[in-house]
Amino acid sequence: FHLHLILLDFKVNRSSVVFIQQPHDLVVVAGQPVTLPCSITGYHGTVLWVKDGLALGVNRDMSGYPRYDVIGDHSKGEYHLLIQRTELTDDGSFECQAIQAATRSRPARLTVLVPPDDPVIIGAPVVSLRAGDSLNLTCHAENAKPAASIIWIRNGEVLNGAAYTKTLLRDGRRESTVSTLHISSSNIETGQQITCRASNKAAPNGKEATVTIDIQHFPLVNLSVEPQPVLEGNLVKFHCAAKANPPVTHYRWAKGGNMITDATGDTYEVLVDHSFFTEPVSCEVTNALGSTNISRNVDVYFGPRLAAEPQSLQVDRGSDAVFSCAWIGNPSLTIVWMKRGHGVVLSNENTLTLKGVRQEDAGKYVCRAVVPRVGVGEKEVMLTVNGPPSISSTQTQQALYGEKGQIKCFIRSTPPPDRIAWSWKETVLESGTSGRYTVETVSTEDGVISTLTMSNIVPADFQTIYNCTAWNSFGSDTEIIRLKEQGNNQFTPSLFLQRQKHRGDSHRMSTETPTVLDSTCDAVLHNVAQLYPHMHKSVRVSN
């Protein structure tokens, strides 16, 4: 509105307006300032800077962009755009526009370059490996624009043969580079330093990370467990046999990651329970060069125990529902998936996959585990299916002439309906009161009931077609309802309406003899189409 007033207040001779300076394509490194020039002679109206088609501010008002300033001598027509501390978001196309002259500069592309983060070598600063093993080094250079190039250097020489991949980040501009270098055992010496250098146009000199190679001989360890298998509550002996050069200095025992303080030598004895089946016992052997850790589980017999609890799901209609249920038990257990109240086995795996679920698939599912001759366990989950609303109502409802009448439609919908509307003739009512008509909506445990109440029923009400429509984010459903005079059992063929409902993307209505209802149906359908053009469903009356 303000801009419109400006256009009315000023008359500018367009031919006299000339761009002395126009913005031109620029490349800048993120964090540096940049100025886009714009000088206009013969013009004293409103100047507007535009980025990617969006206005940034009028004249020198850049209050919405704290890093942007319009600089220069206003009296000389200078409106240069200064961007301080450029960021990646500044990357785009800029124009300088003389509004009253309806003149704009040529578009200028501002390209913002971003240097890579400091490269990171996995395992740095020291990578240790056993004698005889080959070496694999991986270097990451993240968040660069353009993507960083990576080279590997040892003793001043570039090492060839590295493989690399580039990944475009979610912003669609920056990229991350990963380089992997393989070196055979015959080409490595302990103490060598290998450097990863990452560079791009924003960092031509590159950034470096260095790793030192340390070749060690760890203890060779064998951990034995006797006896196995064993019942819960029986005694088990762990023996940690090690060969090391230099010799072993000490042993350390742990169970499930927790230290065992009363075991210090190469042997550990304990009465086992079910936890020894899932929590391994580890023996760590140390010499002057380092440690070797080895662990073993015990083959303990026990009944079913839940290892990963299944989670209830809410999925869209037509999508796959995947439940996961992990049990542990010993000896081997059997898993059975069933729907509560049904005797059909759906799966004998940890995972139950329901392909292309329908709304009738919603309900409770049970994951049951059986260890033969030991025990049984089960866990219940709920499946909720999202889909378009489903309306179920009596298509012919009754009322008394001269009295208050009601027609109802019952809506099942997950997620709940966003809107519910009644329409008849040229009227649409979602809630509240309009004339003789009132719409009320009540939520219940099973769904939503929408009621259209009519005060003082008149004969025309029995000739009217009422349309109840419900929407949610997945679609809509429509029910056509007719009001019949209570106690009048006379059947009139011309008023017979047979409705075929198709769930999904369309609804169809058909009539056998539409002589009386054609005009009423047309009015309802026209009303719905005009007021709700976004409906992804169609309602058609066929002769």
From TrEMBL:
Q: Which UniProt keywords apply?
A: Cell membrane, Disulfide bond, Glycoprotein, Immunoglobulin domain, Membrane, Repeat, Signal, Transmembrane, Transmembrane helix
Which membrane topology term applies here? Single-pass type I membrane protein
- A Pfam family found in this protein is C2-set_2
Query: Is Transport a UniProt keyword of this protein?
Result: no
| Location, primary (coarse class) | membrane
For this protein, the record's CDD domains field holds: IgI_2_KIRREL3-like, IgI_5_KIRREL3
Question: Can you give the residue ranges of the Ig-like domain?
Answer: 15-111, 119-212, 219-299, 304-384, 389-484
One of the record's GO cellular component terms? cell-cell junction
| SMART domains xrefs | IG, IGc2
Q: Which GO terms describe its molecular function?
A: cell adhesion molecule binding
Keyword Zinc attributed: no
SUPFAM superfamilies assigned to the protein according to its UniProt record, in alphabetical order:
Immunoglobulin
Query: In its UniProt record, which GO terms are filed under biological process?
Result: cell-cell adhesion; synapse assembly
Family according to the record: Belongs to the immunoglobulin superfamily.
What name goes with this protein?
Answer: Kirre like nephrin family adhesion molecule 3a
